[in-house]
Amino acid sequence: MHNKTECSAFVIPIRDCLDILSGKWKLPILGALMEGKKRFKELERSIPNITPRMLSKELRELEINQLVKRTVYDTVPVTVEYEMAPYGHSLKKVLMEMKEWGAQHRKRIMTTDTPIETEELDVVEV
Amino acid sequence: MHNKTECSAFVIPIRDCLDILSGKWKLPILGALMEGKKRFKELERSIPNITPRMLSKELRELEINQLVKRTVYDTVPVTVEYEMAPYGHSLKKVLMEMKEWGAQHRKRIMTTDTPIETEELDVVEV
DNA sequence: TATATCGGTATACTTTGGTATAGTGGTTAC
DNA sequence: GTAACCACTATACCAAAGTATACCGATATA
């Protein structure tokens, strides 16, 4: 990192990646969809405490980024299905790196330091 | 992802990793420190628009997570140096995965879709 | 004597992210 | 007929994150 260009080349793409995963509910939603396709209400039920407003908003962002595919079936009433888009699977490698590092880090902090508070996380029920 | 435990094992460590990199300034700070050790004011100068309040706050969080080492030299006035801690380098692999994915994603979104606005990012000057 | 540097902190403010609550229009089950 | 389900949206509110501005005590420079 020895000049502005090189530095932007570091910050900008990582920021992009972070932004896509940002927000309280993106990870639980992706987690739930990795199991398989789900309808809106199914997602709402499997992600405790999420409001329809947030679910809708976060799904839209994931869809815009082509990670999630939304399909509307012309039934009455309409059926809407969400699933991981093929492109969505490209995230898995990054996610697994983050998961490994995160797990390792939690252990490290727990043992070396005063324990960090494991906050009450809302976690997908399946 | 077929049960609650497995799902927490997905969400929690990734959340941990995300949290550590979260906030507007962590990435620019890490970028600046990857160049080598820097004093407080040097960091402040090399990261445009950061306030001392935020710089101090984010450095403290990075230090707590053992990614950054802070050394105080007993001069008058005191000299304080920040540098990547050895453990900090363990992040590089994750960061590089994110960087690659992010760069690839930006290209993809730019070409397939209506261009995404490249916001005016504050970027480290070196 | 006045000004700048060092490494920050204090206070107040604004902006963004997330929550709470209610409601839409149409359909099916009791 | 009324209650529930579906996939959401609208409005109002609240809390967290970030900004702006000023200041600290000690020292060095003009």
> In the CATH hierarchy, what is the architecture of chain A at level 2?
Orthogonal Bundle
Largest β-sheet summary of chain A: 3 strands, antiparallel
SSE string of chain A: HHEHHEEH
Using the coordinates above, name the CATH class of chain A. Mainly Alpha
Order of the strands making up the biggest sheet of chain A: 1-3-2
The coarse overall form of chain A would be: globular
Keywords (chains A, B): DNA-binding, Transcription, Transcription regulation
Domain HTH hxlR-type (chains A, B): 7-110
Pfam families (chains A, B): HxlR
GO molecular function (chains A, B): DNA binding
List the helices and strands and how they pair.
The structure is a homodimer of 126-residue chains.
Chain A: H1 4-21, H2 26-34, E1 38-39, H3 40-46, H4 52-64, E2 68-73, E3 79-84, H5 92-112
Antiparallel strand pairs in A: 1-3, 2-3
The structure holds a DNA duplex (30 and 30 nucleotides).
How does this model look, in words?
2 copies of one chain form a homodimer. Chain A has about 130 residues and is mainly alpha-helical. Chain A has one domain: Winged helix-like DNA-binding domain superfamily/Winged helix DNA-binding domain (Arc Repressor Mutant, subunit A). Chain A is about 55% helix and about 10% strand. Chain A is built from 5 helices and 3 strands. The first copy, chain A, has helices at about 5-20, 25-35, 40-45, 50-65, 90-110; strands spanning about 40, 70-75, 80-85. The first copy, chain A, has a 3-stranded antiparallel sheet. In chain A, strand 2 (about 70-75) and strand 3 form a beta hairpin. The radius of gyration of chain A is 18 Å and the shape is globular. The termini of chain A are far apart. The mean pLDDT of chain A is about 90. Chains A and B meet through helix 1, helix 2 and helix 5 of A and helix 1, helix 2 and helix 5 of B. Chain B binds a DNA duplex (30 and 30 nucleotides) through helix 3 and helix 4. Chains A, B: Keywords: DNA-binding, Transcription, Transcription regulation. Chains A, B: Pfam families: HxlR. Chains A, B: It comes from Runella aurantiaca. Chains A, B: GO terms for molecular function: DNA binding. Chains A, B: InterPro entries: HTH_HxlR, WH-like_DNA-bd_sf, WH_DNA-bd_sf.
